[in-house]
Amino acid sequence: MGEALLGGSICAGTATAVGSLPHRDAHAAAALTLRCLPELPAAPQLPLRSAREGVVAQWIGAVPGIEVHQDGTIEVVGPIDPFAELSISFGDATHAGLLTFLEVAARQPRPPRQVKAQVAGPLTLGVALTEAGMDPDVAFALGARVARAWAGAIAELVAARLPGSTLVTFLDEPALVLWRGAEVPMEREVATDLLSSALAACVGVSGVHVCGHGDLRLALDAGPQVAHFDVAALDLDDASAISRFLDGGGWIAWGAIPTHRPVGEQPQPLWKALLEAWCELTRRGCDPVQLRGQGLVAPACGLAGHGASQAERAMLLAREIGNRVHDQAAATKLAVGA
Length: 338
Prior knowledge:
Elements: H1 26-36, H2 57-60, E1 66-68, E2 74-76, H3 92-106, E3 114-120, H4 122-131, H5 136-161, E4 166-173, H6 188-200, E5 205-210, H7 216-221, E6 226-230, H8 239-247, E7 251-257, H9 268-283, H10 288-293, E8 295-299, H11 308-335
Parallel strand pairs: 3-4, 4-5, 5-6, 6-7, 7-8
Antiparallel strand pairs: 1-2
Helix pairs in contact: 1-3, 4-5, 5-6
């Protein structure tokens, strides 16, 4: 996997996106991501269109005894059987972004060769169920089961709606920030195993989205093929873990486009920040060829907090930075005689 993902169809610098868009029109959101990210378009989540399309709400309603309210909050309304059959179904209220994306993509003159989708990860689902009042051991085991089931269901849906296209599935884990604190929700080893089991259920390429200052090392230890994180939140103490991950053939989706502030118009400051991160990682033992040659580019997080024009600009900037990553990857290989 050190040369390219998906047998060569995803190369260094390929641009994609993470999760949410601000659109209320699902067709407009689908058209935007297909236009701006033609090599690896990301199926959008549209929480402003429906709060039930939020990070947790979109998936947790599959559990019998869990009610998802119109505002996206969840409530335990009945006894929870952790082994009960899950209610996995795709509907307009919860998955309009994904369903419309696949519909629009299939109608393209040249449908995309690969697409990216996203599912809430087991740790994030487990935290949400715990906060809803469930016993933590039951909540996290159930969260992992739910994540695995949805990952498999999305693979089947993509295969049916967009045959011939390969799937990249990211597990969205905003809850990883909790493992940076003094009191963690559960032991790291157990959390790593749960995340690993969900990654194993992903068909095609598996990835983890680490939000903000989430525990990147835990994510890497779980064994994804791609790890996505915010460049601005990079902890240089993670350099050795990143180096091992790259040595093992893993890829990094560099969250080089900020999503916590206006994205700006010029790529140069963002490119400079990425180069500086690479320089620091190289000083701490990472291979400069791997940093570039095993890298994708994306906004740092979801874009639902921006206006539609800013979301579009963020994706176009990711594509522009991605082109520079591609060029540098090729140049760096030549420089070292690869």
